[in-house]
Fold this protein.
Amino acid sequence: MAENAQTMTEFTYAPGEKNIVGDRFSPSVIIFWLKTSIAASSTRVQYKAPNTLFGLIPLGAATKTIPLRNIASVDTNTKFNLGSLVWGLLFLFVGFGMFDSNAMVAIVLLLIAAANLANVMSASLVFRDPSGGANVITVSMLEKDKLMNLAQEIQARVFTDADQLRHEESMHMAEKQFEAQTNSVLIQQQMLANQQAQTPTAPADSM
């Protein structure tokens, strides 16, 4: 799929979407040819992340769109993946142990071990929703700085959207209050007119 000229990602945007920003990231040091795409506009965030088996074998991709109004915060963090370390060491020992009996299988196991050990440290982008849930995107530790820069850009759009939402709610509340005051005045005027219509008119003095 062709890349979008604005963000170098494959996403397309609806008319009216603006302030578009995005980038592509390697999910792993080993499988650098696979890419995770993340982009944001004035209304939503989109991402597409590849799924892998043992951190090496591609198994499709996960795609998601999140409206900005459903994002409470945008966080980044780095973490130590104990599971990747355990699996990496396991495949490493088994791979070395199989070199004498089956060199081809041993090489495959060592590649899997390398993929897991390379992902012992990773960087993550976390989109948290108001209810406390989170969408987590994990990329190579080598792309931490680029990920943090994009996170700041997306956070700015989330804050802008929140300010706009508060402004719209304030305007809506003001309109409701004005409408209520107008209706109250009209009711009072109608009641006064009814009272005047029901008041008998005094007869004029005869000459």
Remarks:
- The chain has a mean pLDDT of 80.
- The chain is about 40% helix and 25% strand.
- Residues 176 and 182 are 10 Å apart (CA to CA).
- Helices lie at 82-97, 103-118, 144-198.
